[in-house]
Amino acid sequence: MARYEPPTHAPSIMQPVSIIICAKNEAENLKKNLPHILNQNYPFFEVIVVNDNSSDETEKIILEFKKKISDLVPR
Predict the structure, then answer these.
(1) Does any domain span residue 8?
(2) pTM for the whole thing?
(3) CA 30 to CA 13: how far, in whole Å?
(4) What is the mean pLDDT of residues 22-32?
(5) What's the confidence (pLDDT) of residue 47?
(6) What gap in Å lies between CA 7 and CA 64, rounded to an integer?
(7) Which of 12, 20, 28, 64 has the greatest number of C-beta atoms within 10 Å?
(8) Which letter does DSSP use for residue 71 in this model?
(9) Given this model, what pLDDT does residue 61 score?
(10) Domain assignment of residue 18, yes or no
(11) pLDDT band for position 43 (cuts 50, 70, 90)
(12) How many Cβ atoms are within 10 Å of 58's Cβ, its own excluded?
Protein backbone atom coordinates (compact mmCIF):
# COMPACT_ATOMS: atom_id res chain seq x y z
CA MET A 1 0.00 0.00 0.00
CA ALA A 2 1.40 3.39 -1.01
CA ARG A 3 0.94 6.58 0.93
CA TYR A 4 1.62 10.12 -0.22
CA GLU A 5 4.18 11.94 1.86
CA PRO A 6 4.63 15.63 1.11
CA PRO A 7 8.19 16.84 0.60
CA THR A 8 9.95 18.00 3.72
CA HIS A 9 11.16 21.17 2.01
CA ALA A 10 9.49 23.57 -0.39
CA PRO A 11 10.82 23.55 -3.93
CA SER A 12 12.97 26.59 -4.60
CA ILE A 13 11.88 26.96 -8.22
CA MET A 14 8.26 27.25 -9.27
CA GLN A 15 7.46 24.91 -12.13
CA PRO A 16 5.90 26.28 -15.33
CA VAL A 17 2.23 25.52 -15.87
CA SER A 18 0.32 25.09 -19.14
CA ILE A 19 -3.43 25.64 -19.18
CA ILE A 20 -5.04 23.93 -22.17
CA ILE A 21 -8.55 24.91 -23.23
CA CYS A 22 -10.38 22.92 -25.91
CA ALA A 23 -13.02 25.15 -27.49
CA LYS A 24 -15.77 24.30 -29.97
CA ASN A 25 -18.21 27.20 -30.41
CA GLU A 26 -17.23 28.73 -27.07
CA ALA A 27 -16.95 32.40 -28.08
CA GLU A 28 -19.19 33.68 -25.28
CA ASN A 29 -17.50 31.53 -22.62
CA LEU A 30 -14.04 32.59 -23.79
CA LYS A 31 -15.02 36.28 -23.65
CA LYS A 32 -16.29 35.79 -20.13
CA ASN A 33 -13.62 33.47 -18.70
CA LEU A 34 -10.31 34.09 -20.50
CA PRO A 35 -9.67 37.40 -18.71
CA HIS A 36 -9.89 35.60 -15.36
CA ILE A 37 -7.63 32.78 -16.51
CA LEU A 38 -5.07 35.17 -17.98
CA ASN A 39 -5.06 37.41 -14.92
CA GLN A 40 -2.91 35.07 -12.83
CA ASN A 41 -0.08 36.10 -10.58
CA TYR A 42 1.74 32.80 -11.12
CA PRO A 43 5.05 33.75 -12.74
CA PHE A 44 5.47 30.96 -15.30
CA PHE A 45 2.34 29.97 -17.16
CA GLU A 46 0.95 29.79 -20.66
CA VAL A 47 -2.59 29.37 -21.91
CA ILE A 48 -3.15 27.22 -24.98
CA VAL A 49 -6.57 27.50 -26.61
CA VAL A 50 -7.40 24.80 -29.15
CA ASN A 51 -10.12 25.89 -31.57
CA ASP A 52 -11.92 22.69 -32.58
CA ASN A 53 -13.32 23.85 -35.95
CA SER A 54 -15.78 26.30 -34.40
CA SER A 55 -18.51 27.87 -36.52
CA ASP A 56 -19.09 30.83 -34.19
CA GLU A 57 -16.65 33.67 -33.39
CA THR A 58 -14.35 31.52 -31.24
CA GLU A 59 -11.34 32.02 -33.53
CA LYS A 60 -11.90 35.79 -33.68
CA ILE A 61 -12.09 36.00 -29.87
CA ILE A 62 -8.90 33.95 -29.48
CA LEU A 63 -7.01 36.17 -31.92
CA GLU A 64 -8.27 39.34 -30.21
CA PHE A 65 -6.93 38.08 -26.88
CA LYS A 66 -3.64 37.04 -28.53
CA LYS A 67 -3.05 40.64 -29.66
CA LYS A 68 -3.20 41.77 -26.03
CA ILE A 69 -1.66 38.83 -24.15
CA SER A 70 1.61 37.15 -25.08
CA ASP A 71 0.98 34.15 -22.79
CA LEU A 72 -1.91 32.98 -24.98
CA VAL A 73 -1.03 30.33 -27.57
CA PRO A 74 -3.75 29.79 -30.21
CA ARG A 75 -3.85 26.38 -31.90
Answers:
(1) no
(2) 0.72
(3) 31
(4) 97
(5) 87
(6) 42
(7) 64
(8) T
(9) 94
(10) no
(11) confident
(12) 22
> Which of 1-24 are b and which e, b meaning 16 or more Cβ less than 10 Å from the residue's Cβ?
eeeeeeeeeeeeeeeeeebebebe
Fill in the amino acid letter for 43. P
Looking at the domain assignment, is residue 49 inside a domain?
A: yes
**Sequence-distant (≥ 6) Cβ neighbours of residue 27 within 8 angstroms:** 54, 56, 57, 58, 60, 61
Contact 73, 47 (CB under 8 A): yes
Q: Is residue 29 part of a domain?
A: yes
Task: Count the domains in the chain.
Answer: 1
Identify which of 64, 69, 58 has the alpha carbon closest to the alpha carbon of residue 21.
Answer: 58
Q: Please name the amino acid found at residue 5.
A: E
3-state helix, strand, coil in the chain (%, to 5): 30, 25, 45
For the segment 47-73, the average pLDDT, to the nearest whole number, is 88
Show the domain range for 40: 23-74
Mean pLDDT of the chain: 86
